[in-house]
Design goal:
single chain, about 190 residues, alpha/beta, globular
Length: about 190
């Protein structure tokens, strides 16, 4: 049976980089990128049926739920990096799936703004526009679904991964050298440019 770890947080909080750091340092791990179903939906439906945010599509939750239920049969740690703040949507998404741990990465607003800017996204970008909503909704969301927060303001990606490993009772392989880690993170970043 799979062991699911949901890595949540505002856009720019470091979910993807953290998931890939965990992937690199955990034997038998797998990343399920829930956003891919959203990109698929955007490609196959006409503009007049598209929602601004693909999470608004019930189909996005249904497709991903089917995939998560299928992945439940694998014998891996499945990492799920995704921003979600609506408890009802989360329950739809994870219906019939046992999420072992749900972690919300929460840097300070100032740190998040710097991270978004470092990605060359402006104040009008999707990530910047969604930040206030995420901060406003995460407390009640976390309480509703039993998620745990990690303040990532002063932590490196390696340290965030180590905090998640502690919470989940996992043993990570050693950190990579600084150069190797930087190259790896750059490859992850370039691979996720949309």
């Amino acid at each position: 049976m799979a062991s699911f770890i949901f890595i949540n947080g505002a856009y720019g909080a470091g979910k993807t980089q953290t998931a890939f750091e965990l992937l690199r340092r955990l034997d038998g791990a797998h990343i399920c990128d829930l956003e891919e179903a959203g990109y698929y939906i955007r490609r196959v439906i006409p503009d007049e049926l598209k929602c601004f945010d693909f999470r608004d599509h019930a189909e996005w939750r249904e497709i991903n739920n089917l995939m998560l239920r299928r992945l439940a049969d694998c014998d891996k740690i499945v990492l799920l990096p995704m921003t979600i703040t609506d408890a009802d949507w989360y329950r739809e998404l994870t219906r019939g799936v046992d999420i072992a741990n749900h972690i919300i990465l929460r840097p300070s607003r100032e740190v998040l703004a710097k991270r978004i800017a470092s990605r060359h996204e402006g104040k009008d970008s999707f990530a910047a526009r969604m930040a206030d909503r995420c901060y406003a909704e995460f407390d009640s969301f976390a309480e509703a679904v039993g998620a745990e927060f990690i303040d990532t303001s002063a932590l490196s990606i390696s340290e965030v991964a180590e905090e998640i490993a502690k919470i989940c009772g996992l043993t990570l392989s050693p950190r990579a050298s600084a150069l190797s880690a930087a190259v790896y993170r750059l490859r992850v970043t370039l691979g996720h440019i949309r």
